[in-house]
Amino acid sequence: LKQIVDNDPADFQAWTELGTAYLMGGDMAEAEKAYRRAIQEKPTFALALLNLGRVLGTQNRYAESVDPLSGATQARPDSADAHFLLGETYLKLKQGSKAVPQLNEALRLDPNGKADAHLLLAALYDAVGLKDRAAGEYKQFLTKRPDFHDRKKLERYIAENKKP
Length: 164
Known about the structure:
Layout (H helix, E strand, L loop, with lengths): L1 H6 L4 H13 L3 H14 L4 H13 L3 H14 L4 H13 L3 H14 L6 H12 L3 H14 L6 H11 L3
Helix pairs in contact: 2-3, 2-4, 3-4, 4-5, 4-6, 5-6, 6-7, 7-8, 8-9, 9-10
């Protein structure tokens, strides 16, 4: 990959793959550089934007990850992963009103694959006192993940907080 980008510095796909190789090897600094270079070459390349957001998020640089993740949702509006990660990032930034539409969009795009979005939404609703909405999210989650390890705990919460 290094030879490819040395021969063709504008190869945004090779830069992205190089970033992924660094990421898999645990070299976050080099992964970030490679993803940023891919984005420099093609600012709308969703995979590089998504992975840069992922790298920044793993380093707790949530505010910095918003721009690339937003770019990923714009470049690929059909990406449940991008919407999920952006929603999760907004939650970590304590921006729940921005998180909710992103998490709901992730669920719309991939209802079963992004079932964990129900858990995030439930935690948010619980934190702001909307316990019946939290119970509804937990119920939807358990429908999709019936073998969840804390099922009994969530069922108790649902029973105690659902509207009659």
